[in-house]
Amino acid sequence: MVTSCYSGTAADCPYSSPVLLLESALIGMDRRGVQRIHADSGLSPLSFCEQVIAPALTVIGEKWDRGELSLSHVYMSGRLCEEFMEEVLGGRLESAQERRPVALAVLEDYHLLGKRLVGFVLKGAGIPYLDYGTVGVQELVRRTQRDGVGVLLISALMLPSALKVREVRDALDRLGMECRIVVGGAPFRLDPALHREVGADVSCDTASQVLPALAQLWEGES
């Protein structure tokens, strides 16, 4: 059984970074530990998400890939972070400027870490979004049209999934939808030109890059 070693303040563990402390608290399902680590960090919720939560979840995901942690650890760590972000953000999402909806999806893939991190960043910035989960091309296009989505954020871990963004782009164009597409994931990091080949407007290497990407797209609409 994996337990948390975090039970005090940062001063009790002077040689441990907030990322390592949070990783331990998440693996041990220590909700109060997560709250204390945030309080001790002195960071805003968004900064804490970008600088501590994102790297901690990445480490946990890598350990799962190596067989050092179970899938339940990955799932519960993500759930704890979601609960924490909802708690500290309160009702901030309602105050976001009204725009055409933003939607977030994983395209034909079941590795949800990237999408989850982007969701944290959006919540931290007060940007409401539609969470489509894992979907195929046809379902993604159907939901995008139904909801009148203005910006579609797509995460793809594997190259075959990344290439299917082209099908999404072509289908939306045939429907006459003016929807901007932002992509992220390993295939797009490895090939900086890939997002243009599949018809995406912007590619983001990290979750935190989504915010300036959205600002850029929205500025172009105004």
Automatic annotation (TrEMBL):
<dbReference type="Pfam" id="PF02607">
    <property type="entry name" value="B12-binding_2"/>
</dbReference>
<dbReference type="InterPro" id="IPR036724">
    <property type="entry name" value="Cobalamin-bd_sf"/>
</dbReference>
<dbReference type="GO" id="GO:0031419">
    <property type="term" value="F:cobalamin binding"/>
</dbReference>
<dbReference type="InterPro" id="IPR006158">
    <property type="entry name" value="Cobalamin-bd"/>
</dbReference>
<feature type="domain" description="B12-binding">
    <location>
        <begin position="98"/>
        <end position="222"/>
    </location>
</feature>
<dbReference type="InterPro" id="IPR003759">
    <property type="entry name" value="Cbl-bd_cap"/>
</dbReference>
<dbReference type="Pfam" id="PF02310">
    <property type="entry name" value="B12-binding"/>
</dbReference>
<dbReference type="InterPro" id="IPR036594">
    <property type="entry name" value="Meth_synthase_dom"/>
</dbReference>
<protein>
    <submittedName>
        <fullName>Cobalamin-dependent protein</fullName>
    </submittedName>
</protein>
<dbReference type="GO" id="GO:0046872">
    <property type="term" value="F:metal ion binding"/>
</dbReference>
